[in-house]
Each structure stands twice: as C-alpha cells, then as structure tokens.
Amino acid sequence: QSALTQPPSASGSPGQSVTISCTGTNRDVGRYNSVSWYQQHPGKAPKLLIYEVTKRPSGVPDRFSGSKSGSTASLTVSGLQAEDEADYYCCSFAASNTYVFGTGTKVTVL
Amino acid sequence: EVQVVESGGGLVQPGGSLRLSCAASGFTLNTHWVHWARQAPGKGLEWVSQIDPNGNGRSYADSVTGRFTTSRDNAESTVYLQMNSLRPEDTAVYYCARGGVLYAVDMWGQGTMVTVSS
C-alpha cells in the first residue's frame, strides 16, 4: 500500500490552469476507474471534488475536471481563483478492498 | 445540519487503547459505507479502514491491521474505531467519512485528535 505519487507543489496565476498528476500502479490507479480527488484548506476537513475519475458532485464548479491514462490520473483546475489555494489529494481503490491516498500537492495561486 | 461528527480522541500512552466514535446528524449512517482516515501533524492523508452498511465487510490499511477494528451499531447509528497497541506514529487527526458515492467519500467530519505519547 504505497502512497500514490503527486508533485509536492504546483502554481498558477489567477485565470490560468494548473494540472496535478497522480501516479500509481496496475494494482490501483491502473486497474480501477475509482480515482477521487479532495481539496483541503489549512485546518479544515477535506472536500470531495471528483470521483470515479471524472464525475463531479453537485456544487463543485466545472472548473475542476479529472482524467486518467494508464496508471496516472490528473486533476485540472481551470480559471484559477484565490480560493483554490489549498492542498489536493488523489485517492484510488486498490487491491484487497483497500484505498490509497496520494502524497498531496500544495497549489499556490500567484 | 447534515454532518458526521467524531468523538473519543485524546492523549494515550504507547501500548494503550482508545475507541473513536462517529455519529451522523441530519441523515442516517446505517445505509452507508463509513471510512476512517487520518492525518499526522503536517503530513498527508492516510486511509485507515472502511466498513459496509451491514457491518459484515471491513478492510484495513496494512499499517493498522491486527491493531485497529472498525464496527458499527446501526441501532445507535454509530460507527466505531477501536484502536489497540497504539504507537507514537499513530498520532494524528482521525476523520470519519461517509462513503456516499461509489469508491469515494462525500462527507467528512471535523476530525478528532489522537496523541500517543508517554
């Protein structure tokens, strides 16, 4: 159950787009269409942004989108806004009916 | 307000035990998978365990297998995380979360802090 690999940081100016990668293996990301993405502001609980790779819960802006190719999933935040500055985590269903989170990416809005 | 609420955190010595509880407000937990995740100070999220609506299906992260047990009392609409043989590396904020969508959690509690220290 090794953590999925994410870049430690990403940044962009307001209005720009930023894409965060999430690399796993053929035992998790590559096997299941079950990647989810969470946003976490400092001192707060995580918030679900994307589930089943591409689906958005109601209330999540369509500026947030997900995709997957092989064992790497990605989250794109378009039209960056100041409130998007937060930590982002991917998560995947994995073997033995378990889950594994990514290492996390801190997004900075310049 | 629709939310999940954890309780039971605190300070415990290494080797000790603690039981966390997770209750729902504004909806019933009884029909949902429930997950536990944790976050050590300044670190990332780590998935800990899950339990199915009937309490028959459970799974755990390798790091807690054999030491932690999740259970539920649907009559009380409460889910528990029994933590035994606690280690300093178990120190973290523990979150309860509702598995409201397929393969993901759509509602998180505010977390409860567990500190393992002598």
Describe the fold and architecture:
The complex is a heterodimer of chains A (110) and B (118). Chain A is an all-beta fold. Helix content of chain A is 0%, strand content 45%. Chain A has no helices and 9 strands. In chain A, the strands form 2 sheets. In chain A, strands 1, 3, 4, 7, 8 and 9 form a 6-stranded mixed sheet that branches. In chain A, a hairpin with a 3-residue loop joins strand 7 (86-94) and strand 8. The termini of chain A are far apart. Chain B is mainly β. Chain B is 0% helix and 51% strand. Chain B is built from no helices and 11 strands. Chain B has strands at residues 3-7, 10-12, 18-25, 33-39, 45-51, 58-60, 68-73, 78-83, 92-99, 107-108, 112-116. In chain B, strands 2, 4, 5, 6, 9, 10 and 11 form a 7-stranded mixed sheet that branches. In chain B, strands 1-3-8-7 form a 4-stranded antiparallel sheet, with no helix packed on it. The radius of gyration of chain B is 13 Å and the shape is globular. The mean pLDDT of chain B is 96. The A-B interface holds A 1, 3, 32, 34, 36, 38, 40, 45-48, 51-52, 55, 57, 87, 89, 91, 93, 96-104 and B 35, 37, 44-47, 50, 57, 59-63, 95, 101-106, 108-111.
Termini Cα gap of chain A: 34 Å
Q: Approximately how much helix is present in the residues of chain A?
A: under 10%
Q: Please state the overall shape of chain B, judged from the principal axes of the Cα atoms.
A: globular
Taking the sheet with the most strands of chain B, its summary is:
7 strands, mixed
**Biggest interface between protein chains, with counts per chain?**
A-B, 28 and 24 residues
* Structural category of chain B: mainly beta
Structural class of chain A comes to mainly beta
- Note the beta-strand portion of chain A: 35-45%
**What low-confidence regions of chain B span 5 or more consecutive residues with pLDDT below 50?**
none
Q: What's the shape of chain A?
A: globular
Main beta sheet strand tally, sense and closure of chain A: 6 strands, mixed
Q: Assembly type of the shown chains?
A: heterodimer
